[in-house]
Amino acid sequence: MIELRHLRTLLALRETGSLVEAAERVHLTQSALSHQLKDLESRVESPLFVRKTRPVEFTRAGLRLLTLADHVLPEVRRAERDIARLTGSEQGRLHMAIECHSCFQWLMPTVDYFRDHWPEVEIDIPSGHHFDPLPALAREQLDLVITADPQPLDGVHYAPLFRYEGLLAVSRQHPFAKKSAVTPQELAGETLITYPVEQSRLDVFTHFLNPANVRPKEIRTAELTIMMMQLVASGRGVCALPNWALTEYLERAYVSAVKLGEEGVWGTLYAAIREDSLEAPWMQDFLRTARETSFAVLSGIKPATRDAESAE
């Protein structure tokens, strides 16, 4: 018998293109995922994909099951949502703040989808906050905060959405463009372009420069990602951004990107929610939609690790 978990695993394998990343997506070890796939192949008496291909090449049987997954899983999701609405309160409020200037690329499709499926929930992204979003969440002025900087607050839960790597964007003519990675010391002679936020909320400082006790020659701020890219492309500075925020500029060869250190600098994006609203059906659906949408539209992200989940 084919089970829903089998279909979800096949979808993860198609979307990630590798067994290792598919295992991360469905929160299994690689060994457990391989065992599950072999079990499914024995049930249908056919191989489902060609081993040792990247991206994964599916057989005709595998493609047929993927077609089934594309049809069945959305229907299951809709049924779960309808049942949740029948058994719970339909009223709700979702006022959110975003501590992430480049989040709108995946957040807006999430919000649009959510509005269509939960029209009775009041959703808003207020602008012009003159207070810190996370304390405002604890005071019930907000209902959700997108943040990469969790703070210990009573009654606040941090649900990890995905992991991302910070990369250094440089002009294509910059000497760094020929390197695979840069050291903190190499940024001491550079103008670093950042969003106009506290340095304590920027991974390039907290996880790269500050531990090495290094300061850039100059710090310049810009409100929008496109403004930052224009400055970088014209050689007026470098900037550190999430890998997925740089994708379109790298694909167009507008700028180049290098790793921050040989090991790279990885961060986790969270949805901060009050514990008393976490189990609301519409909140759970928003989190699931946010994760699914981000993996559908962003490149280079990974599922949150166990460490990130334990940090909630």
From TrEMBL:
Annotated CDD domains: PBP2_MetR (cd08441)
Signal peptide: none
A biological process from GO: methionine biosynthetic process
Residue ranges occupied by any HTH lysR-type domain in the UniProt entry: 2-59
Pfam families: HTH_1, LysR_substrate
Cited PROSITE patterns: HTH_LYSR (PS50931)
A GO CC term attached to the entry: cytoplasm
Keywords assigned: Activator, Amino-acid biosynthesis, Cytoplasm, DNA-binding, Methionine biosynthesis, Repressor, Transcription, Transcription regulation
Superkingdom of this protein's organism: Bacteria
InterPro entries associated with the record: LysR_HTH_N (IPR000847), LysR_subst-bd (IPR005119), MetR_PBP2 (IPR037406), WH-like_DNA-bd_sf (IPR036388), WH_DNA-bd_sf (IPR036390)
Any GO MF annotation of the entry: DNA-binding transcription factor activity
Places the protein is found: Cytoplasm
Primary residence: cytoplasm
PANTHER family: HTH-TYPE TRANSCRIPTIONAL REGULATOR (PTHR30126), HTH-TYPE TRANSCRIPTIONAL REGULATOR METR (PTHR30126:SF25)
Membership in a protein family: Belongs to the LysR transcriptional regulatory family.
Protein name: HTH-type transcriptional regulator MetR
